[in-house]
Design goal:
By secondary structure, this protein is α/β, with parallel strands linked by helices. It has a single domain, classed as Rossmann fold (3-Layer(aba) Sandwich), CATH 3.40.50. It is built from eight helices and five strands, in the order H-E-H-E-H-H-E-H-E-H-H-E-H. It has a five-stranded parallel beta sheet with strand order 2-3-1-4-5, with helices on both faces. Helix 4 packs parallel to helix 5. The termini are far apart.
């Protein structure tokens, strides 16, 4: 079967219907930053904060996705690109399903992040740069990956022997060397409220 024979089937239930039922929008919050910067830690805490407020969300984490959906991909530039492309498509589906999507991926290349932005509606891709110096990330090194990369046991490791292209104009910057976890989560919640993606707590 060729792609010429594939037809998109619309649902009777629309994205707008889901938004009205949920009483919130469904942006994609794209957390990007070096390994060890705090992406996963923040998204776990943010997901819990949203859940406690009755807001429907789902978290996509880099390591978790590579256990299943992307377990056939490595870490070459080509595989990194495909990894982010697939996650972008999954994020778009969750966006349509009415969920706030939290993604925690290094996503080192600006072009790949921009491509995900392009497949979503205007204003629904929220790029959040989880900023932490390379020294700070190496000092944390929660998985021991920097140590392995410095020892030559891991090749093509972002920040060591592979590039990381910092976001130029992200919607938010969270500096985890300056902000606590609680402050980071509150900054994001405040942003979502100010843009009317979610309603303020009464």
């Amino acid at each position: 079967m060729t792609t010429n024979n594939i037809v998109w089937h619309d649902s009777v239930v629309t994205k707008q219907d889901r938004k009205e039922q949920n009483n919130h929008h469904s942006p994609v919050l794209w957390f990007t930053g070096l390994s060890g910067s705090g992406k996963s830690t923040i998204t776990v805490a943010l997901e819990k904060a949203l859940f406690d407020r009755g807001i429907r969300s789902y978290r996509l984490d880099g390591d978790n996705i590579r256990h299943g959906l992307n377990n056939n991909l490595g870490f070459s530039p080509e595989d990194r690109k495909e990894n982010i492309r697939r996650i972008g498509e999954v994020s778009k589906l969750l966006n349509d399903a009415g969920l706030i999507t939290l993604t925690a991926f290094i996503s080192p290349y600006k072009e790949d992040r921009d491509n995900v932005r392009q497949i979503l509606n205007d204003g629904e891709f929220i790029e959040i740069y989880v900023k932490c110096s390379l020294d700070g990330c190496e000092a944390r090194d929660p998985k021991g990956l920097y140590q392995k990369a410095r020892a030559g046991e891991i090749k093509g490791f972002t920040g060591v022997d592979a590039p990381y292209e910092e976001p130029e104009t992200p919607e938010l910057v969270i500096d985890t060397e300056q902000q606590s976890l609680e402050e980071s989560v509150q900054t994001i919640l405040n942003y979502l409220e100010s843009k009317q993606f979610i309603s303020p707590v009464k």
